[in-house]
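Curious: why this fold?
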Amino acid sequence: MTVVDERAASNRAAMLERLAELEEQRSLATLGGGERALARHRSRGKLTVRERIELLLDRDSPFLELSPYAAWGTDFPVGASVVTGIGVVEGVEVMISANDPTVRGGTSNPYTLRKSGRAHDIAETNRLPFISLVESGGADLPTQSEIFIPGGRGFRNLTRLSAQGIPTVALVFGNSTAGGAYVPGMSDHVVMIEGRSKVFLAGPPLVKMATGEDADDESLGGASMHARVSGSADHLAVDEVDAIRLGRRIVRNLNWRKQGPGPSRPADPPLHDPEELLDLAPADLRQPLDPRDVLARIVDGSRFDEHKPLYGTSLVTGWASVHGHPIGVLANARGVLFRQDAEKAAQFIQLANQTDTPLLFLQNTTGYMVGAEYEQDGIIKAGSQMINAVANSTVPAITVNIGASYGAGNYGMCGRAYDPRFLFTWPNAKSAVMGPAQLAGVLDIVGRASAQARGRDYDEEAAAAMRAAVEQQIEAESLALFLSGRLYDDGIIDPRDTRTVLGLALSVIHNAPIRGVHDGWGVFRL
């Protein structure tokens, strides 16, 4: 076996191990509140959250679940008690946000807010009709101090969608009380289920305490009352399946159309097998990874027309298409970005905006090059040009971290702070301000200088322990699961699914008009 074969086998084994770990965590989210909670839920004649979504979607259509590992590594359950994602209903791409009532009654915690907020942002930016599948006990009271004030943004978001002509639909399967009553209250279309839906600002006990009035659930907020008396329900369903049927009928009558262009290129599959991406994804991020090999297994027909191939060779730029949608690609060929790479990137981003072409960033960078020679060469000016171009570009961008994403390289390659329409991560990927060893080394140098300035001896034993502890902490905090748990991406994906995920994402972004910067940019320091 050659060195290349050994490396491929090692990469594949490491990736399959990571994918198995992810599947285990994914199963925890799918299980919801656990076997007992699921059994109790089913005993009430209710569908699970994922069964509701499956019935709502068109038969055999895909569902791009978002942020499935939200809250991983925290005190809250994986998935954050809500399922969000993009699917197709009556031929229309929609955003779905569905409470999981088996997880602490579907109550919202700080990560629920982040996950739901991200779903609202995606729907607004990409003009996706928003469907809420509601069954929630409201706020997770022990964390109310963290969620009460920011929680109001969810209701604001629904009204903003409606104000922009983006339809909002609420299917109420159970409780939607207190602040949660405003979800159907602020949705364009509302379906409630007779004998099941309960929508009120205050339940019977609170009403009794506040006003002295004796009232029951039905007279306060039952579905029949809201359909016949208050008018808060537009449709009264007989059961959950009927509610989903009515929801599909509502979407069918939206007369919804995409405003972006459709696919314009041949959508033939790559010539190279996507299965081989498992061999290419480096288990050790110090290994080289030629992004052209990745692109050959992702883009249509493995066709990639490279731009400026002889200049700035640490960054690969060029044109391709995925599932017929044209894209401009920026991909790190070697970890470090030099002045020439940054200049090339800025120019390429301008070209993509000139032709209204969406951008795909494949991140695998340790950041911009440092040192006296490179500072004198103008790396700050060039890096600023690149970041300026990324920040002010108006064509949609999709980012995939396929390796490393460190330092300002994360910014220049359109990290989360630069609002890509979608950001996905491979399981082997890492991201941090810098590598663990480098960060620990910097702290060590600073510590030595501080001791010397004070005329004190430097404790080598304590310093070694500090370096080890820092490296361990930074390593743990740079892993894909840690970052995904905090919603710094939209999900960790199997490398073999990259083409499919990109195709779905590109289809979604074309719901909105695609228009680049044509009127000018900010000041570029030349």
Summary: The chain has a mean pLDDT of 91. The longest strand covers residues 397-406. The first helix runs from residue 3 to 31.
